């Protein structure tokens, strides 16, 4: 059960995933990075079926990188998200569908706007201001609906995320000890620690 | 030709349980005699775990304890050696560590055939890599090969939870690969029905900067405690140390004897009333 959610402002997207790899009743690894960097200004967080997650991420990562190399230009977040959705849709009714849930976050250097796309394992896609995958949505959507505004600042988003952590800590049965927090904005992608929130 | 056919058709093959149809000119041909009372569905039912595998895949024995951890001088790999078939112990001397090549080891948990076959295939691929690239394969690449191999069979019933341990240019390497397609790197893993017990010992005593003797002791104790509590683990402790120069195996130890070694206060006596007494503390 992975925690996976993200919030976007006008010029940034901040994404959060937990760091645990669990197998039945065991914690196998607690410092796993569940995000996949696609280019300098686009990344996606991935959850779902073990095996499918790593294989699909690597496939998309390779193809996005190939485009950048061939065309000396990165795909924009919207182009990336639509490409990913297309690949997932093609795989869906094939011999090997991928059961992965994604949040694609990016900053478009052309239009100077941030973008967040929610894509689920059935390859439904929506461009959203904030989103979550998995059980954490049941707890976090209410908080995000209440606190979010379209002109939220990075500090405002950080405060909102802290509130999200509080809700999960208080009410969710799984105690997530650590999270991978990534921000993408005009200057690229960077990782924040929980203390920097 | 017709006369020949009639002659053959007229042969009485009934002593072999074969019956000819003499009505037609054509040769009826022999028919198969099946084993008496054969009922394929009932036969397979014994081996199919219908409750947990709704696709009725063959029931795989998962009873095992395997562990591996990295430390400053390499990787320690330790396993038990029990194989169970339902409630019966099929063997107490199974080799659950697979020697892929002189510097790579794999462990076996899940289906024995799946593990040993695919790790042997991995050994072949690693050798081919060496021949093509004139260098040893890294642990990351070897484990990735195995992960990609089994990913192709995902959902088709392979059962494999294995750890690939070795030493390459980056130092000690350890990956967990399973038949779900998962591949993760970490310093410490335990896999199998007894893994939770082994984790109990490992998590409380493991340190990266242990000396070899201490590392071996922690591994031995972890397997011992797992075999003590898990019915499906037991037999002997097999231990390997993967160092820069390759792996080396250690003498085998029976977990039954380890019980008395770790509990010196408990001694067997010949008394009929209480065959097992605790000796008074000196």
From TrEMBL, chain A:
<keyword id="KW-0647">Proteasome</keyword>
<protein>
    <submittedName>
        <fullName>Proteasome subunit beta type-4</fullName>
        <ecNumber>3.4.25.1</ecNumber>
    </submittedName>
</protein>
<keyword id="KW-0378">Hydrolase</keyword>
Automatic annotation (TrEMBL), chain B:
<dbReference type="InterPro" id="IPR023333">
    <property type="entry name" value="Proteasome_suB-type"/>
</dbReference>
<keyword id="KW-0647">Proteasome</keyword>
<dbReference type="GO" id="GO:0005634">
    <property type="term" value="C:nucleus"/>
</dbReference>
<dbReference type="InterPro" id="IPR016050">
    <property type="entry name" value="Proteasome_bsu_CS"/>
</dbReference>
<keyword id="KW-0378">Hydrolase</keyword>
<dbReference type="GO" id="GO:0019774">
    <property type="term" value="C:proteasome core complex, beta-subunit complex"/>
</dbReference>
<comment type="subunit">
    <text>Component of the proteasome complex.</text>
</comment>
<dbReference type="InterPro" id="IPR029055">
    <property type="entry name" value="Ntn_hydrolases_N"/>
</dbReference>
<comment type="function">
    <text>Component of the proteasome, a multicatalytic proteinase complex which is characterized by its ability to cleave peptides with Arg, Phe, Tyr, Leu, and Glu adjacent to the leaving group at neutral or slightly basic pH. The proteasome has an ATP-dependent proteolytic activity.</text>
</comment>
<dbReference type="GO" id="GO:0005737">
    <property type="term" value="C:cytoplasm"/>
</dbReference>
<keyword id="KW-0888">Threonine protease</keyword>
<dbReference type="Pfam" id="PF00227">
    <property type="entry name" value="Proteasome"/>
</dbReference>
<dbReference type="GO" id="GO:0004298">
    <property type="term" value="F:threonine-type endopeptidase activity"/>
</dbReference>
<keyword id="KW-0963">Cytoplasm</keyword>
<comment type="similarity">
    <text>Belongs to the peptidase T1B family.</text>
</comment>
<protein>
    <recommendedName>
        <fullName>Proteasome subunit beta</fullName>
    </recommendedName>
</protein>
<keyword id="KW-0865">Zymogen</keyword>
<dbReference type="InterPro" id="IPR000243">
    <property type="entry name" value="Pept_T1A_subB"/>
</dbReference>
<dbReference type="GO" id="GO:0051603">
    <property type="term" value="P:proteolysis involved in protein catabolic process"/>
</dbReference>
<feature type="active site" description="Nucleophile">
    <location>
        <position position="64"/>
    </location>
</feature>
<keyword id="KW-0539">Nucleus</keyword>
<keyword id="KW-0645">Protease</keyword>
């Amino acid at each position: 059960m992975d925690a996976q959610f993200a919030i976007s402002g006008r010029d940034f997207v901040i994404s959060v995933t937990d760091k645990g790899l669990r197998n039945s009743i065991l914690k196998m690894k607690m410092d796993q990075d569940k995000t996949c960097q696609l280019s300098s200004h686009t990344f996606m967080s991935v959850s779902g079926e073990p095996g499918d997650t790593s294989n699909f991420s690597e496939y998309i990562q390779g193809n996005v990188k190939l485009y950048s190399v061939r065309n000396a230009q990165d795909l924009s977040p919207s182009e990336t998200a639509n490409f990913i959705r297309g690949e997932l849709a093609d795989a869906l009714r094939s011999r090997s569908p991928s059961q992965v849930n994604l949040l694609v976050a990016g900053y478009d250097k052309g239009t100077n706007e941030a973008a967040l796309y929610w894509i689920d394992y059935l390859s439904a896609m929506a461009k959203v201001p904030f989103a979550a995958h998995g059980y954490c949505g049941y707890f976090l959507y209410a908080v995000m609906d209440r606190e979010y505004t379209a002109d939220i600042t990075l500090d405002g988003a950080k405060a909102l995320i802290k509130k999200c952590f509080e809700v999960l800590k208080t009410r969710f049965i799984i105690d997530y000890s650590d999270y991978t927090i990534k921000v993408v904005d005009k200057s690229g992608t960077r990782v924040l620690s929980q203390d920097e929130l | 030709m017709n006369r020949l056919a009639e002659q053959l058709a007229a042969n009485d093959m009934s002593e072999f349980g074969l019956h000819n149809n003499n009505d037609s000119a054509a040769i009826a041909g022999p028919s198969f005699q099946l084993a008496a009372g054969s009922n394929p569905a009932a036969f397979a039912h014994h081996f199919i775990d219908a409750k947990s595998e709704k696709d009725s895949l063959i029931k795989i024995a998962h009873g095992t304890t395997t562990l591996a951890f990295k430390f400053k001088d390499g990787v320690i790999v330790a396993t038990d050696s029990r194989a169970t078939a339902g409630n019966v112990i099929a063997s107490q001397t199974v080799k659950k560590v697979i020697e892929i090549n002189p510097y790579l080891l794999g462990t076996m948990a899940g289906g024995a055939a799946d593990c040993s076959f695919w790790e042997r295939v991995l050994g072949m691929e690693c050798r081919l890599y060496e021949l093509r690239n004139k260098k040893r394969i890294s642990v990351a690449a070897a484990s990735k090969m195995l992960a990609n191999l089994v990913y192709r069979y995902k959902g088709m019933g392979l059962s494999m939870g294995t750890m690939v341990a070795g030493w390459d240019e980056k130092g000690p390497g350890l990956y967990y690969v399973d038949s779900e397609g998962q591949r993760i790197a970490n310093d410490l893993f335990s896999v199998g029905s007894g893994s939770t017990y082994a984790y109990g010992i490992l998590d409380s005593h493991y340190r990266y900067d242990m000396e070899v003797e201490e590392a071996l002791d922690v591994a031995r104790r972890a397997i011992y405690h797992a075999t003590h509590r898990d019915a499906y683990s037991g037999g002997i402790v097999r231990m390997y140390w993967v160092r820069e120069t390759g792996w080396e195996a250690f003498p085998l130890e029976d977990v039954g004897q380890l019980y008395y070694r770790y509990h010196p206060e408990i001694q067997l006596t010949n008394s009929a009333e209480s065959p097992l007494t605790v000796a008074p503390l000196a």
